[in-house]
Amino acid sequence: MLAHSAGTSVEMSSVHTVLVFALVAAASVTPVYALEFCQSTDRDCHGHDKKTSPDAIRSRWNVNASNLMQDLDQFSVSCTKLIDAFPLDKVDGNFVRTVKNCIFSKSIPTPLKGPLRLAAVSKDVLEGILNLDMAVTQSEEFLHYASGGKLLPGSVPLAHRYGGHQFGYWAGQLGDGRAHSLGRYTDRSGDGRAVIRSSVREFLCSEAMHFLHVPTSRAASLIVSDEPVMRDQFYNGNVNTERVVNDTAHLIAQWMSVGFAHGVCNTDNFSLLSITIDYGPFGFMESYNPDFVPNTSDDEGRYSIGAQADIGLFNLEKLLTALSPVLTKKQQKEANVILKGYVHIYQMRFHQLFKAKLGLLGDEEADSYLIAFLLKASQ
Ligand SMILES: *[C@@H]1O[C@H](CO)[C@@H](O)[C@H](O)[C@H]1NC(C)=O
Ligand SMILES: *[C@@H]1O[C@H](CO)[C@@H](O)[C@H](O)[C@H]1NC(C)=O
Ligand SMILES: *[C@@H]1O[C@H](CO)[C@@H](O)[C@H](O)[C@H]1NC(C)=O
Ligand SMILES: *[C@@H]1O[C@H](CO)[C@@H](O)[C@H](O)[C@H]1NC(C)=O
Q: Which of 7, 20, 170, 373 has its CA 20 to 30 A from that of 331?
């Protein structure tokens, strides 16, 4: 697992650039992420405080909007947990290099220049997760925070080193690093930018996925400027094998239930939190077709919609291989047993979701046949 090289496949493209202020990567499922965003009274940001689950945050929001922060100066993030837990890159600065013996590099976002415009905001993320009043988006200050010109109090922007299997093969050092972790969120890259079209797609689809109840990364806002920029694509990054296997199976079953094809299920496009990340050439099926491939260049259909469940397993196997050196023999055995349960969990969840779609109550032996029959018939 090594990589932090800004821009392996950088190309110049659109004049319109956009910066995604995705402060929260995973609010819908994991309390940990939401809790990385602390109010200034809460310096250390203890991620596991049970009292503040995202649900609690949301219900507080629903119940009493006057508790929302109206002043960005009250808003701070904490990075201490990450920095204390992992060694930081000794080298400072934003340039392409191999990073050794550490996980994070400090990396100050390059601010967007020129007139900035707020292109979109997710009220739900802003209020429900970040506890910010929508009024803050009207301020110049918000544009600067969101476009990398100003750092949030407490923020140590970090770039994450990563590597992965691409299209089935170990790809070694990767890193287009459009992501910066500002507190505990990620947006991977040297400069934290992307072209507007793909960012708007990501913004819209991740919101749609959230409201379809599919776990996903989310963005709080999109800031647009006219500054030309180098182009690239998106990202993210105590493993509990059982949880990861279970949640991955659930996630992919949910993708299937809404006809979502991720498009590029490389290992580094999968989150350990089992949320949908990295919206690239994704697509939704227009009509049922297990061979549906949203990436028009994926001729072999490696990442066809019908292959996603298998790919999920492949990725989990690679994860286990990567973790094996730090697991005892006993743990490795246990992990293998857990991994064997993946298929069952997936099938069970798939079955459950499709039963719900069809409005099937109770448990009939013929349910599975009916589901399979209807899917086949709709091809
Ligand atoms: C909402 O919160 C404010 C400040 O904390 C408080 O003064 C007010 O009474 C609360 N309103 C309700 C309806 O709970
Ligand atoms: C498996 O994951 C789903 C969805 O994340 C969750 O609701 C369920 O409780 C999990 N089951 C176990 C055994 O962890
Ligand atoms: C998926 O992963 C590969 C690296 O493995 C990367 O090149 C690609 O841009 C990623 N994301 C998308 C959306 O394609
Ligand atoms: C689409 O698939 C092709 C062929 O496998 C691959 O080279 C390309 O990187 C994929 N597109 C993206 C955006 O990842």
A: 170
* Closest atom, ligand 3, to C-alpha of 278: 13
Q: How many CB atoms lie within 10 A of CB 331?
A: 13
Name residue, tokens 């292109």: 119
Nearest atom, ligand 1, residue 64 CA: 1
* C-alpha 232 chain-centroid distance: 16
Query: What is the model's pLDDT at position 305?
Result: 97
Looking at all shown ligands, the one closest to residue 245's CA atom is: 2
Report d(CA 248, CA 316) in Å as an integer: 8
Q: Report CA(262)–ligand 3 centroid distance (Å).
A: 11
Ligand showing the shortest atom-to-Cα distance for residue 166: 3
- Domain-wise residue ranges, the chain: 18-26+68-231, 235-378
Task: Concatenate the DSSP letters of all residues of 205-242 into one string.
Answer: HHHHHHHTT--B---SEEEEE----EE---------HH
The residues lining ligand 2, judged by C-beta closer than 6 Å to any ligand atom, are 243, 246-247, 250
Eight-class DSSP state of 281: S
Catalytic residue among 176, 268, 363, 367: 268
Note the pLDDT tens digit of each residue in 300-325.
999 999 999 999 999 999 999 998 99
Q: Is 42 a catalytic residue?
A: no
* Closest ligand, as measured to the CA of 293: 4
Q: CB within 6 Å of ligand 4 — which residues?
A: 167, 264, 280-281, 295, 297-298
Task: Please state, in angstroms and rounded to a whole number, the distance separating the CA atoms of residues 272 and 97.
Answer: 25
- Our answer on whether the CB atom of 64 is closer than 6 Å to any ligand 1 atom is yes
CB 82 within 8 A of CB 154: no
Q: What is the pLDDT of residues 208-220, one digit of tens each?
A: 999 999 999 888 8
Among protein residues, the one whose CA lies closest to atom 5 of ligand 4: 298
List beta partners, residue 260. Answer: 284
| Full-model pTM | 0.74
For 15-42, what is the mean pLDDT?
Answer: 28
Query: What DSSP string describes 158-191?
Result: EEE--EEEETTEEEEE-------BSSS----SSS
What is the whole-number distance in angstroms between the Cα of residue 264 and the centre of ligand 4? 7
